[in-house]
Design a protein that fits this description.
alpha/beta; seven-stranded mixed beta sheet; 45% helix
C-alpha cells in the first residue's frame, strides 16, 4: 500500500479509501504528497478518528442511517472503517449485515452514493474481460458474487442485491482479516422481475425482466471463465442465487476453480457447527439425533446433507444417517412418491412406505404430524416464512425431548420461524436456541438466556482466510466439515441456564482463525493445497490476517 500511495498526490489520494489516512497524515507526508492546506492542521491518531466516527454512529437515529454512515466511512478510509467495526463488532455486525442489510438492499438505489465493486449487466455479456480489467487490481483473492434474485428472505432485488457482496466482504475483512484491497464484490445484473424495483424512478439497475434459461447460464459461464482468466487462484463465493440455480451452478463449477456457495455450504457448515456445539451442551451423542427441517430448498437441503455427513462421521452408515433426517416443505414431508422434486431433494426423500400412515385427510404430512411421529431432537427452520414453529409444534417436541434443539434460521429477523422468547417460554427454558439473525437476550423466570446467532460469519471468513493462506485450489466437503467441527470446538460448553451455544461475536476473529487453521489443514490433507509444516501454515495464516491500521 505504501509504495502505491506514493504515485498519488493531493485530492487523488484523499479520494482513495485504501490509502487515505485523512487527518492522520503526518506533516512530512502532507508536504511530500501535496496535501498541505487540504487538511486541517492538527494531526490525529487513528484512535481519535475512530472515536469521532463512533460518536457519529451512535447519533444516527435508525439502523439504516447507521448503515449509510458506515458505508460513507468505508468509502473514505478503509482502515478507519475496519478499526471501528472490529472494536464495536457486536453493535455493528447487525448494521453492516443482517438484518439491516436487507433494508439497505431494498433501498439500494435510493441510498447509492459511491461506486463500489463491479456491476456486470447482461447487455455487456461480451465485454466481461474488459470489465474485470477495469479493476486495475491483479491481486484480488476473494470475490463474492450475486445475481440479486433471492436476497435473504426478500426475493428479487435486482441491482440492489449488491448490498450483499459488499456486506459479506466487509465481514471477510472484519472477522477473517482478509485485506480489503484483495476483495471484490460483484453483481451480475440479469434484470429483475420485481415490479416495484422496475417502477422506481431511482432504480440503478438494468431495466429489464430477468433473463433465464440458456441465456442466463451462458452469462454466468462467461463471467466464471473470465474470472478464471483474470484471477485463476481467486476464491469465488456465490451468494443469494435462486433455488433453481444455486445447486446446479455449484455442481457445475466446484471442480473448475476454488469456489463455494455460502447459502448452500456456508449455512450448512455453521448450522452443523451449532448443532454439534448444542449436542455437547445437551450431553447428547451426535449419532443419536433425529432432525426435522422446515424448508427443503437449496439452503435446507445443503444443511441436511452436511448433517448426514456429521452423522456418518459419528459412526452411522449412510442409510442409517439418511433415515434420521426429515425434510418438510410447502407440500409437506418429502417422500419418494412426490413428483417434481429437484435432484438434491430426491436424495433426501423418505421412503413413502415408511411414512404413508402419517398423512392427513389431504394426503400431505405436515410439520406437526412429522414432529409428532419423528420425535425429533433438533428442529431447523430455513423456509423464510415467519411463525411456522407454532406453540403446538414446539410443545409437542419438548414433551418428548429433555433439551430440544430449535434453530429458526431464516433471515432477516422478520422471517424467523419463531422468536426465541416464545420458544423458551413454551419449553420452560429447556430449549437450546440459535437464530440466523440477531435477537436480544430473553429474560424468563429470573434467568437471562443468551440467544446464539448461527450466522455464516462464524464460518465463511475463516474459510476465506484458510483457503487464501494455504493457497488451496478447491473448497471440499471435508474442508466444510472441518470448519463446522472447529466452530463447535471453539464454542463454550456450559450447562448453566441461559448460556449461549456459540462464542460471543466479540471473539469472532479468534473463531475465524481457528476455522482457518482447520480448513487449511484439511485442504493439505486432501491434497488441494501445497503441503507445508504446521508451523509454516500457522505463520501464513498470521501473515494473511490483516489488522486495520495506517501502517
Amino acid at each position: 500500500m505504501a509504495d502505491q500511495s506514493t504515485t498519488r498526490r493531493g485530492r487523488a489520494i484523499l479520494a482513495d479509501p485504501l490509502f487515505n489516512k485523512g487527518t492522520s497524515f503526518s506533516v512530512a507526508e502532507r508536504r511530500e504528497l501535496g496535501l498541505l492546506g487540504l487538511l486541517p492542521p492538527h494531526v490525529e491518531t487513528i484512535e481519535e478518528q475512530v472515536q469521532r466516527a463512533y460518536e457519529a454512529f451512535l447519533a444516527e437515529p435508525t439502523p439504516l442511517e447507521q448503515h449509510i454512515l458506515l458505508r460513507r466511512i468505508q468509502d473514505t478510509s478503509e482502515a478507519v472503517f475496519y478499526r471501528l467495526v472490529v472494536e464495536h463488532l457486536h453493535e455493528m455486525m447487525p448494521v453492516i449485515y443482517t438484518p439491516t442489510v436487507g433494508t439497505a438492499c431494498e433501498q439500494f438505489s435510493e441510498i447509492y452514493r459511491v461506486p463500489r465493486g463491479l456491476f456486470i449487466a447482461y447487455p455487456n455479456k461480451d465485454r466481461i474481460d474488459e470489465i474485470l480489467e477495469n479493476t486495475m487490481n491483479d491481486d484480488v483473492r476473494a470475490i463474492v458474487v450475486t445475481d440479486g434474485q433471492r436476497i435473504l428472505g426478500l426475493g428479487d432485488q435486482g441491482a440492489g442485491g449488491m448490498g450483499i457482496p459488499i456486506g459479506k466482504l466487509s465481514l471477510y475483512t472484519a472477522a477473517g482479516g482478509i485485506h480489503p484491497a484483495q476483495t471484490l464484490p460483484v453483481l451480475l445484473d440479469c434484470g429483475t422481475d420485481n415490479d416495484e424495483r422496475l417502477a422506481d424512478p431511482f432504480y440503478i439497475g438494468w431495466r429489464n425482466g430477468r433473463v433465464d434459461g440458456d441465456d442466463y447460464l451462458g452469462f454466468v459461464d462467461a463471467f466464471v471463465q473470465a474470472v478464471k482468466r483474470r484471477w485463476p487462484h481467486v476464491l469465488l463465493q456465490f451468494e443469494d442465487f435462486a433455488i433453481q440455480h444455486a445447486v446446479p451452478l455449484l455442481e457445475t463449477y466446484r471442480d473448475q476453480l476454488c469456489m463455494f456457495n455460502d447459502d448452500v455450504q456456508g449455512t450448512a457448515a455453521v448450522a452443523v457447527g451449532t448443532l454439534l456445539a448444542a449436542s455437547r451442551i445437551a450431553e447428547m451423542d451426535v449419532k443419536d439425533h433425529r432432525v426435522v427441517f422446515l424448508g427443503a430448498g437449496s439452503a435446507g437441503s445443503g444443511i441436511a446433507e452436511h448433517v448426514i455427513r456429521a452423522l456418518t462421521r459419528a459412526g452411522l452408515s449412510a442409510e442409517e444417517a439418511r433415515a434420521r433426517v426429515y425434510m418438510v416443505d410447502r407440500y409437506g414431508l418429502i417422500h419418494d412418491r412426490m413428483e417434481g422434486l429437484a435432484p438434491f431433494q430426491q436424495a433426501l426423500a423418505q421412503p413413502h412406505a415408511a411414512v404413508a400412515g402419517w398423512a392427513g385427510s389431504d394426503g400431505q404430512i405436515d410439520l406437526a404430524s412429522t414432529v409428532a411421529q419423528v420425535r425429533p431432537t433438533a428442529l431447523v427452520g430455513v423456509c423464510g416464512q415467519p411463525g411456522l414453529f407454532t406453540e403446538e409444534i414446539v410443545r409437542s417436541m419438548a414433551s418428548q425431548c429433555a433439551r430440544p434443539i430449535i434453530f429458526p434460521m431464516s433471515n432477516p429477523t422478520s422471517r424467523a420461524e419463531a422468536v426465541p422468547e416464545d420458544i423458551l417460554r413454551w419449553t420452560d427454558g429447556r430449549a437450546l436456541v440459535a437464530t440466523g439473525s440477531p435477537f436480544e437476550p430473553v429474560d424468563l423466570d429470573g434467568t437471562t438466556y443468551a440467544i446464539a446467532q448461527s450466522n455464516n460469519t462464524y464460518i465463511f471468513p475463516g474459510i476465506g482466510l484458510g483457503v487464501i493462506a494455504a493457497k488451496a485450489s478447491r473448497v471440499t466437503d471435508g474442508m466444510l466439515s472441518a470448519s463446522a467441527e472447529a466452530l463447535a470446538e471453539a464454542s463454550p460448553v456450559s450447562t448453566a441456564p441461559g448460556a449461549s451455544i456459540l462464542p460471543p461475536i466479540e471473539d469472532i476473529r479468534d473463531v475465524c482463525k481457528a476455522v482457518a487453521i482447520a480448513v487449511a489443514r484439511q485442504a493439505q490433507a486432501e491434497g488441494v493445497a501445497p503441503e507445508t509444516t504446521d508451523e509454516a501454515l500457522l505463520a501464513a495464516i498470521d501473515q494473511t490476517q490483516w489488522v486495520p491500521d495506517f501502517d
